[in-house]
Design brief:
6-stranded antiparallel β-sheet, about 260 residues
């Protein structure tokens, strides 16, 4: 069992962590459509994650990320801080300034992943309004994430796979010490990585926090701009957020929100 982190003093690890995230795997028998959809979805969740250096290594698409979630042992009182795990005391460690990383650039301009690269694209407005935009069942729904923020819950939760080998106990302990529910449910399913759940809003959401700005838009080659998994149906008895508009209504009623990649 991973113990509490073995920090030597208060420091930047109290406020955020630098990690490498597995975005997706390249499939030699498939084109980049699924990969572009999954990468666009992941890199859209910018509220508490700063993404940088999207790249391919062998058959994997990776991205470096800074997770802006503090350690659960950090206790701040004004300008002074204390570590409840080791009783270190001192000035509150400076929080990193999140880098601006907009996905909506104004008008019909967006930044999304295309052929494995984060690229600016012009995505024209749909020629006709889609019915789902006129009667969005999620509008006004009392769904909420674990921090009790209401509305658009499925667009503010995400699951990530972080590269962390079984012997990297320092990194693993730091991840497990993040403040819940903003980063929680750290689970090791293999020797190379950990899965975590985070609360971090998607920047493709419109200002009112429910409608998706990519809905109905298409890339120049005809592919949907909106990630495929935003349309996926979960199992009939799948887990949904408290207050979800689709809870208990069955799969035939519409696209039920899902969590994870």
């Amino acid at each position: 069992m991973v113990q509490r982190p073995k920090c030597e003093s208060l420091g930047p690890q109290c406020r955020s962590l630098h990690v490498t995230v597995l975005v997706d795997n390249f499939d030699p028998d498939d084109d980049t459509e699924t990969l572009d959809h999954n990468a666009t979805w992941l890199l859209g969740h910018t509220e508490r994650v700063t993404f940088s250096n999207l790249r391919r290594e062998d058959d994997e698409l990776l991205v470096d990320a800074q997770l802006h979630v503090p350690c659960k042992y950090l206790e701040a009182n004004g300008r002074l801080a204390r570590c409840r795990a080791f009783h270190y005391r001192g000035p509150v460690p400076r929080a990193p300034t999140p880098r601006t990383q907009p996905r909506r650039l104004g008008g019909n301009r967006f930044r999304l992943v295309d052929h494995g690269e984060l690229t600016e694209k012009v995505l024209p407005t749909p020629r006709r309004s889609l019915k789902v935009l006129q009667t969005n069942p999620c509008d006004g729904a009392p769904c909420r994430t674990a921090d009790n923020t209401r509305g658009g819950a499925c667009c503010r939760d995400l699951q990530m796979e972080i590269l962390c080998r079984k012997g990297q106990t320092s990194l693993e302990s730091l991840l497990r010490a993040r403040k819940a529910p903003y980063l929680c449910k750290v689970d090791r399913e293999g020797d190379a990585s950990l899965t975590v759940e985070m609360i971090s809003s998607c920047d493709y959401l419109e200002e009112e926090g429910v409608a998706c700005s990519l809905h109905g838009r298409h890339r120049e080659d005809g592919r949907s701009a909106k990630p495929q998994l935003c349309w996926d149906w979960p199992p009939r008895r799948g887990t949904v957020h408290p207050g979800c508009a689709f809870r208990g209504r069955g799969r035939a009623d519409g696209p039920t929100p899902r969590r994870g990649r």
